[in-house]
TrEMBL record:
Protein name per its UniProtKB record: Aldo/keto reductase
InterPro entries noted in UniProt: AKR, AKR_Detox_Biosynth, Aldo/ket_reductase_CS, NAD(P)_OxRdtase_dom_sf, NADP_OxRdtase_dom
Organism (species): Nonomuraea aridisoli
Keyword set, alphabetical order: Oxidoreductase
Domain NADP-dependent oxidoreductase, residue spans: 15-320
Pfam family, one: Aldo_ket_red
GO molecular function, one term: oxidoreductase activity
UniProt superkingdom: Bacteria
Length: 321
């Protein structure tokens, strides 16, 4: 599958990137959301992603207070990747901080990334900062103008907030490159809440996070409902409707269709889920599945290697509505 442009920038990315929250380390709150992995495993995961054709990685300050950034950089180095050979996206954590901390903490981001540049710097969420969004966006624009980051993005922004971000950045001579939001076969809110339409109009890339719904869309919980007991605490709590017996029964027809479609292409159910996300919306949406095993990263990369027929895409569309 062809590389895509990140927004209107000259940064090229594969339609699938690797989500690196799984590199947060075992001693922080991220473990409530994902299955954290050791550094050695992370290196194997990054190697599998690279081998499969993944050319960019998404991390964040919040993923273990820089731990994920450090582990990613170490893994890239171990894999022989030179700075600039892949793209790296990270995020600033707004909670309880003013916009000035964007400027103050960019040195930490770059230090944790150990020589790999910040290709995309994102405001992790629109709430929680002690400064307004315009001040945060102007601080990001200043970093871009100073060449400390290549592009500016946001995350979890609504359509209205995207318009604001685009306007404030444009006044500073900087483009809004991306909005990172939750998108999957079971989370299609962007089609209704204006985010998709706004992204297309403004030339902004949407980065789909949790595109596998934490593994639900691989069919593993349908295969073995007992596995839901081992899901990370927050997944069990926030996903309790989806992971309950009734929830799994509700999505079973979709998973059954995905199994049939997957078998026809010689791929897995999870690959069908990822392929749908990166093709359903044309070039606008790219996805960043997470992986706690090299095999999962290889599978994620393999989702770029086939094409769903129009009939298959239509069936998935219907069943996931
Ligand atoms: N901007 C934000 O607010 C935000 C929020 C959440 C996430 N993110 C980003 O999005 C990335 C991905 O999100 P996510 O990790 O929450 O969800 P996800 O990509 O939907 O799910 C990833 C999990 O699915 C399971 N999985 C992956 N491949 C599999 C396979 N082939 N077979 C079976 N299970 C498989 C693994 O679970 P196990 O490890 O349990 O096996 C893996 O950790 C994160 O790493 C992060 O970079 C951003």
């Amino acid at each position: 599958m062809k590389a895509r442009r990140l927004g209107t920038t000259d940064i090229e990315i594969s339609p699938i990137g690797l989500g690196c929250m799984q590199f947060s380390g075992t001693r922080n709150v991220a473990r409530l959301m994902i299955r954290p992995i050791e550094e050695e495993t992370a290196t194997a995961v990054v190697r599998a992603a690279l081998d499969g054709g993944i050319t960019w990685f998404d991390t964040a300050e919040m993923y273990g207070a820089g731990n994920s950034e450090e582990v990613l950089a170490a893994a890239l180095k171990e894999c022989g990747v030179a700075p600039g050979q892949v793209a790296v996206a990270t995020k600033w954590a707004p909670l309880g901080r003013t916009a000035a901390s964007i400027t103050r903490t960019i040195g930490d981001r770059l230090a944790h990334l150990g020589g790999y540049p910040v290709d995309l710097h994102q405001i992790h969420m629109p709430t929680g900062s002690l400064s307004g969004l315009p001040a945060q966006l102007r601080a990001m624009a200043a970093l871009a103008r100073a060449g400390r980051i290549r592009a500016v993005g946001v995350s979890n922004f609504s359509a209205r907030q995207m318009v604001l971000a685009h306007r404030v950045l444009a006044a500073e001579g900087v483009a809004l490159a991306a909005n990172q939001v939750r998108i999957s076969l079971l989370r299609r809110d962007i089609e209704r809440d204006g985010v998709l339409e706004t992204a297309r109009r403004l030339g902004v890339t949407l980065i789909a996070y949790s595109p596998l719904d934490g593994g639900l869309l691989t069919g593993r919980y349908h295969d073995d409902p007992e596995l839901t007991r081992n899901a990370p605490v927050m997944r069990r709590f926030f996903g309790r409707r989806d992971l309950s017996t009734r929830g799994l029964a509700r999505t079973a027809p979709l998973i059954d269709a995905m199994r049939r479609i997957a078998a026809g292409h010689g791929v897995t159910v999870g690959q069908v889920a990822l392929n749908w996300v990166i093709t359903r919306y044309g070039d606008t949406v790219v996805a960043i599945p997470g992986a706690s095993k090299p095999r999962q990263a290889a599978e994620a990369a393999g989702a770029m290697g086939f094409t769903l027929t129009a009939a298959e895409a239509g069936e998935l569309d219907e069943l996931s509505r």
